[in-house]
Amino acid sequence: MPSLQVQTYTLSQGIELSFTDSGAPSDSVDYTTVVFLHGGIFNAYQFYKLHAHAHPLNLRTVFLHRRDYAGSTPYSRTELDELEQGSVEFWERLSAQLAEFLGMFIQREKIPKLNRRKMPSPHETSYRSQTSSVEGKGGLAIFGWSAGCATILSVLGAAQNPLIKEELYKDLQEYLAKCILYDPAYFSFGYTPPDDNPNYIPWHDPAVSVEDLPLAVAEWVSSYYDHPCYDPLSQSLPSTATIYDLDGKKKKSDLMSLSTWSEEDFTKGLEGPPAKGELLAH
User: Fold this and answer.
1) Region of residue 138 (phi > 0: left; psi between -120 and 50: alpha; otherwise: beta)
2) Which Gene3D superfamilies match (predicted)?
3) Among 11, 34, 170, 181, which one is least packed by beta carbons within 10 Å?
4) Higher pLDDT, 37 or 191
5) How far is CA 166 from CA 128, 173, 235, in A?
6) Which SS3 state, helix, strand or coil, does residue 3 take?
7) Predicted TM-score of the model (pTM)
8) Run of H or E residues at 143
9) Based on the structure, what is the number of domains in the chain?
10) How confident is residue 64, by pLDDT bands cut at 50, 70 and 90?
11) In the chain, how many H helices and how many E strands?
């Protein structure tokens, strides 16, 4: 099991961001660095076992604790108010902080640049040939899970953030290869569920107190569901599935991933206070 050596970068405005790093694969000059951003309630500790699998895949994994979590600078009361109000300035600052972190990591760790391959020739029409031709080695990928996707999209979705220097934009273009959105929260895209949404959402449940909300959400997201629209052949939900086709009315299942966690996992991996602020803001 990899050791957890937490590092901290201090950004230009005194903001601190903590993270763990698998380090560079030995003797590799073209590894890809993958920066993970966790969602709400569960901090980056949940990913740490993946560090052990990085080097055989020619990867370097960096698990970043978002603001308000595990060693990173907490949000101020003003920032939480801005988050609740949907302030553009809040998201510009947050995305600028992520961009600055990426720039610092690139500079300090001297990770390989993205080596882009040539575009396919006109006669290469298969999906596989096109995909393999435009991919390259090295560079940087950013991975967001759930609420972490909102921070990533705030960087990539803005045409121009006045808080991100043009030089940093250009540097990131030399490295940024992929953006991976894993189970993004609906508010990451700026929309809310329809009023007739039949599925259970803990933070919309008046019976769940603010104090009980983090654990209720943790149990909810780590539960297992038998969706009636599940396709066993493709082992996925069909592209035509909607929220009305899901088995989503249960508050939790009898078997949960959370039930396999040790006491240490709970202590290190779950954080209630920051989750309350984020969830209540949405």
Assistant:
1) left
2) alpha/beta hydrolase (3.40.50.1820)
3) 170
4) 37
5) 35, 11, 44
6) coil
7) 0.86
8) strand 140-145
9) 2
10) very high
11) 8, 6
**In which residue are the tokens 């055989």 written?**
56
The vertex-64 CA angle with 63 and 67, nearest 5°, equals 155
Element (H, E) at 278: helix 272-281
Strand partners of residue 36: 63, 143
User: What 3-state class would DSSP assign to 17?
Assistant: strand
How high is the mean pLDDT of the chain? 87
Do 33 and 154 lie in one domain? The reply is yes
Short-list 175, 55, 69, 163, CA closest to 112: 175
Strands 59-64 and 16-21: antiparallel
- Residue numbers of the domain that contains 211: 194-282
Q: Answer yes or no: are the C-beta atoms of 71 and 65 closer than 8 Å.
A: yes
Distance, CA of 275 to CA of 164 (rounded, Å) = 27
Of 130, 164, 191, which marks where a domain is finished?
191
* 215 shares a domain with 143: no
Q: Measured on CA atoms in the order 198, 227, 180, 39, is the torsion positive or negative?
A: positive
Answer yes or no: do 96 and 222 share one domain: no
Q: Are 73 and 15 in contact (CB under 8 A)?
A: yes
d(CA 183, CA 181): 6
Residue 158 structure tokens: 């803005």
Inter-residue contact 237 to 227 (CB < 8 Å): yes
